[in-house]
Amino acid sequence: QNAASPIMEELIAFHDHALMIIFLISSLVLYIISLMLTTKLTHTSTMNAQEIEIIWTILPAIILIMIALPSLRILYMTDEFNKPYLTLKAIGHQWYWSYEYSDYEDLAFDSYIMPTYFLEPGEFRLLEVDNRTTLPMEADIRMLISSQDVLHSWAVPSLGVKADAIPGRLNQAMVASMRPGLF
């Protein structure tokens, strides 16, 4: 699915940025290797040159900084919590998830996977549930994620969120959808 949140859009842009750097480095290395294999000429003056050693020491450090700074910015963006509009608690169980809207009294439900024989044409096996979670659009939503029995992972890739559900531990994630849809 396409990105539905600003965090996921930033993650896709960072992926493209890092992939371009990797492509340029790989092209340069391939060019140098092919040049070394095809030519018989060698410069003896470059074998002991201090300038070349400085360049191939500083250049990788600059490249790492070009990758690290956007990565750290996105890391802090994903962990930034404004005043949430809504709090939703997801509790993982062995074969289903329980959801509780903490801001409202007695608003909780269980979400089970639909059996294969109940699926309609066009629905996806192991992705359809009987009770879907409904969240508002263009609002910051705080997700509290925990587990009842075993380790789980609560993820919505198009929103750029993935958090582990660990028994006895409460993890927190921020979700914001900028467009309506089924994620």
Automatic annotation (TrEMBL):
Checking Pfam families in the record gives: COX2 (PF00116), COX2_TM (PF02790)
Q: Where are the transmembrane segments?
A: 12-34, 54-76
Q: Which GO terms fall under molecular function for this chain's record?
A: copper ion binding; cytochrome-c oxidase activity
* A biological-process GO annotation: ATP synthesis coupled electron transport
Which cofactors does the annotated protein need, by name? Cu cation
Q: Which GO terms describe its cellular component?
A: mitochondrial inner membrane
Q: Which residues form the Cytochrome oxidase subunit II copper A binding domain?
A: 83-183
Keywords, ordered alphabetically: Copper, Electron transport, Magnesium, Membrane, Metal-binding, Mitochondrion, Mitochondrion inner membrane, Respiratory chain, Translocase, Transmembrane, Transmembrane helix, Transport
User: InterPro entries, per this entry?
Assistant: CcO_II, CcO_II-like_C, Cupredoxin, Cyt_c_oxidase_su2_TM_dom, Cyt_c_oxidase_su2_TM_sf
Can you quote the record's cofactor note? Answer: Binds a copper A center.
Which regions form coiled coils? none
Q: Which reaction does it catalyse?
A: 4 Fe(II)-[cytochrome c] + O2 + 8 H(+)(in) = 4 Fe(III)-[cytochrome c] + 2 H2O + 4 H(+)(out)
Q: Does the keyword Transmembrane apply?
A: yes
What membrane topology is given?
Multi-pass membrane protein
Biological role: Component of the cytochrome c oxidase, the last enzyme in the mitochondrial electron transport chain which drives oxidative phosphorylation. The respiratory chain contains 3 multisubunit complexes succinate dehydrogenase (complex II, CII), ubiquinol-cytochrome c oxidoreductase (cytochrome b-c1 complex, complex III, CIII) and cytochrome c oxidase (complex IV, CIV), that cooperate to transfer electrons derived from NADH and succinate to molecular oxygen, creating an electrochemical gradient over the inner membrane that drives transmembrane transport and the ATP synthase.
Give the family per the record.
Answer: Belongs to the cytochrome c oxidase subunit 2 family.
Full protein name: Cytochrome c oxidase subunit 2
Which organism was this protein described from? Plecturocebus donacophilus
